[in-house]
């Protein structure tokens, strides 16, 4: 036993066991590796990005990706069958809320800036319950409003080019 620290062999082994129990998955894998694999992992340098791995400026993107504007932001457009669900804690009412379609006059070409009167949901939970899984539905939260005790469970979109969107 070490007189200065009070740590003996038993305490050190208990400490290793406690640490091991917190990160059991990682440490169990590490302990099961052959020592040569452990040495390689310890000495491996992080991979540096070389010019060959970096994107080329002004390169055209593959068609499977969403379009970007001049500033690099993704341009989102709803699909023809997208449902647009507006949510406002200050103006919404879950009982009278309406699910809008992408082509509705109130929605306009840009759902982020509705052109007409919309009927928003009050709670995020009620709007998310109406959003369909594996469909390109949009749930749009009113900027400046706040919600407490509510979460957002992301839904899968139809495809990479027709995503489900949660935004403000």
Describe this structure in words.
This protein has 168 residues and is α/β, with parallel strands linked by helices. It folds into 2 domains: 9-44; 57-168, no CATH class. 23% of the residues lie in helices and 8% in strands. The chain has helices at residues 9-22, 24-32, 35-43, 124-130, and strands at residues 83-87, 100-101, 138-141, 165-167. The protein has a 4-stranded mixed β-sheet with strand order 2-1-3-4, covered by helices on one side. Residues 4-33 have low confidence and may be disordered.
What structural keywords apply?
4 helices; four-stranded mixed β-sheet; 168 residues; alpha/beta
Supply the helix-strand structural class: alpha/beta
**Mean pLDDT, as a whole number?**
74
Radius of gyration, in Å, reads 26 Å
Number of domains: 2
Q: Uncertain runs with pLDDT below 50, 5 residues or more?
A: 4-33
Query: What is the number of beta strands?
Result: 4
Across the major sheet, the strand order is 2-1-3-4
Q: The biggest beta sheet, please?
A: 4 strands, mixed
- H and E string: HHHEEHEE
């Amino acid at each position: 036993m070490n007189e200065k620290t009070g740590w003996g062999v038993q305490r050190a082994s208990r400490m290793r066991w406690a640490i091991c129990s917190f990160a059991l998955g990682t440490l169990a894998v590490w302990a099961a590796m052959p020592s040569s694999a452990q040495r390689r992992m310890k000495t491996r340098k992080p991979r540096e990005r070389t010019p060959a791995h970096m994107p080329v400026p002004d390169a055209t993107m593959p068609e499977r990706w969403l379009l970007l504007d001049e500033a690099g932001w993704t341009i989102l457009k709803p699909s023809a069958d997208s449902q647009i669900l507006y949510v406002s804690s200050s103006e919404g009412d879950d009982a009278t809320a309406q699910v809008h379609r992408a082509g509705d006059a109130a929605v306009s070409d840009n759902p982020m800036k509705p052109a007409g009167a919309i009927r928003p949901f009050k709670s995020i939970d009620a709007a998310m319950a109406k959003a369909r899984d594996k469909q390109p539905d949009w749930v749009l939260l009113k900027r400046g409003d706040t919600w407490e005790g509510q979460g957002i469970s992301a839904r899968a979109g139809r495809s990479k080019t027709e995503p489900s969107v949660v935004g403000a």
